[in-house]
Amino acid sequence: MSTATTSPLRCWAEIDLAAFERNLKRIQAALPARMRYVAVVKADAYGHGMPQIVRRLMQSGVDCFAVANVTEAADIRHMGAGWPILVLSPLLPQEDHFVVEYDLTATVSTLGECERLNALGQANGCRIKVHLKIDTGMGRLGIWHRDAPALLTQIQAMPALQLEGVYTHFSSADSDTQFTEVQRERFLRALQSERGLAESLLIHADNSAGIDTLSNDSPYNAVRIGLLQFGVPPYPKSALGRVAVEPIFSFHTRIGLIKDLPGGTDISYARTHQLKRDSRIAVLTAGYGDGVPLELSNRGSVLIHAQRCPILGRVTMDQTIVDVTDCPSAQIGDPVVLIGKDGAHEITTTEFSEQAQTIPWETLCSVTKRVTRVYVGSREL
Ligand SMILES: *Cc1c(COP(=O)(O)O)cnc(C)c1O
Question: Measured from the CA of 173, which atom of ligand 1 is nearest?
């Protein structure tokens, strides 16, 4: 039974773990056999809930987890020993020791970081696992590609560092295949100049959008997948012919109040909407305090009884007002779909994000703590 009828909640996100697992299988099936799957689960697994998502990923058999920071990494380590965990962001010097404590793999971009970690390894009598990140045009983390060969040589000479991977990150894999090619070329050139790179190295560049242009005869042997595994294509009309994923996330609330108001009445803060006719409005029990973006004020719509109902006026912290004049069966307590399917209609995460002038990644990260995650499709063990 869907959570719409059973949930006593005012606002909730439903996460379909069975669909998640189907997505993983489809993505893995679409990748060349040698490709290792690095599951990106930063930011509470894109808002889906780290423990539930990570557990399912462990059951499904991924090769490595990637997170933003050591706190997220520690959460995964507590769930299972032995899993490789790559920290994608730079470590703060204050955090270095966690790498030893939790057996993590660090990302390095500079000689300074390498020296710090080498000293840490020496002090602890161990080797610190690192991936060298190369900046091929993202302008964020990584050593600038022209300087990468020199740093690679230096790393290999550091006794307490163990180089396990080399990677780069695309800035525009979802919008500019030409620039992505430039980045691929820069990356491969940086690697070519280095003879004797161990075959055991993980070589990776592709995020969800990248795998569209990933060719079979490349040195890459791993991909870093975030958004796609959660069932959201990285760009709207993506060719991702290789992988058809299904949404796993839906976002729900309820009608808290219904009332009739005369035409001309102002709706919500700052009076940005005036009713054009005598209307019936429904006040929903979710607002930006739950993750309904303020940007949806006067633009978005929701699904009630499988009908689209427009948002009126400003979204507020705890409530959102919609027009139900044309949906006379709507009643207090009824479920409302913010993202997801209702009858023949669907509001996808992508559509919701476009309406809110943002991107699906931000939408998923913006569903707040107040919103209970309800998991369906659990696995019998
Ligand atoms: C977040 C992240 C990814 C995953 O990107 P998606 O587009 O969500 O697949 C991959 N690599 C790095 C470095 C990231 O920060």
Answer: 7
Q: What is the pLDDT of residues 165-224, one digit of tens each?
A: 999 999 999 889 999 999 999 999 999 876 667 678 999 999 988 887 787 778 899 999
User: Whose C-alpha lies nearest to ligand 1, atom 15?
Assistant: 88
> Sign of the CA dihedral 130, 135, 140, 143?
positive
Structure tokens at 166: 């080399």
- Whole-number Å distance, alpha carbon 141 to ligand 1 midpoint, is 13
33-80 confidence digits (pLDDT tens): 889 999 999 999 999 999 999 999 999 999 999 999 999 999 999 999
H or E element in which residue 309 lies? strand 307-310
* Shortest-distance atom of ligand 1 to CA 68: 15
Residues 6+ positions from 130 with CB-CB distance below 8 Å: 105, 106, 107, 108, 114, 117, 155, 161, 162, 163, 164, 165
Distance 226 CA to ligand 1 centre (A): 6
Do residues 281 and 291 touch, judged by C-beta distance below 8 A? no
User: Which tokens belong to 118?
Assistant: 């080498």
Check whether 317 is labelled as a binding-site residue.
yes
Active site residues: 42, 269
Residues of the chain with pLDDT under 70: 1-2, 4-5, 194-196, 198, 236-242, 380-381
Which pLDDT value is given to residue 234? 83
Give me the domains of the chain, ranges plus CATH numbers: 31-237 (3.20.20.10), 249-376 (2.40.37.10)
Rounded Cα–Cα distance for residues 275 and 244 (Å): 42
Summary mean pLDDT of the chain: 94
Is the sign of the CA dihedral 305, 306, 309, 314 positive or negative? positive
